[in-house]
Amino acid sequence: MLAAYQHLHESGLAHSIEVYEGAELVGGLYGVALGRCFFGESMFSRTTNASKAAFIMLARHLAHWGYHFLDAQVTNPHLLSLGATEIPRQTFLKQLRENVDKRLEHRWEIREDLVYP
After folding, report:
1. Cβ distance 38 to 68 under 8 Å?
2. pLDDT of 71-108, one tens digit each?
3. Measuring CA to CA, how many Å separate 32 from each of 28, 59, 63, 94, 115?
4. Closest by alpha carbon to 35, among 86, 77, 91, 98?
């Protein structure tokens, strides 16, 4: 899995969003971007709300960049508390077909000092 994700990252498809407290990595998430879709794979947190901060920043950036959805895969109370909604499988497949091949040009740089209107 490590080699596969390293290859995906080197290909510009896999991305990670990290949260630091000083120099210490305290939380984050990673996933794969295809077209206008981002597929979240895993989140972790070593301090309270660190993964939430990563998720919220990612969602803001994806919306600004023109992504259609952020797939969280499995509904759970944590993701629902962040605004996730569950959609029927047929709706997901339709949205996937309509967006997975639409290439977006943007720089994968997520910084807390970037502010969008």
Report:
1. no
2. 988 888 888 888 889 999 999 999 999 999 998 887 78
3. 14, 14, 16, 19, 23
4. 98
Q: What span, in angstroms and rounded, lies between the C-alpha atoms of 26 and 28?
A: 7
Give how far Cα 22 sits from Cα of 26, 27, 59, 66, Å: 9, 12, 23, 31
Cα–Cα distance for residue pair 20/38, rounded to 1 Å: 22
CA distance 67 to 26: 26
Q: How far apart are CA 108 and CA 55, in angstroms?
A: 15
Model confidence at 56: pLDDT above 60: yes
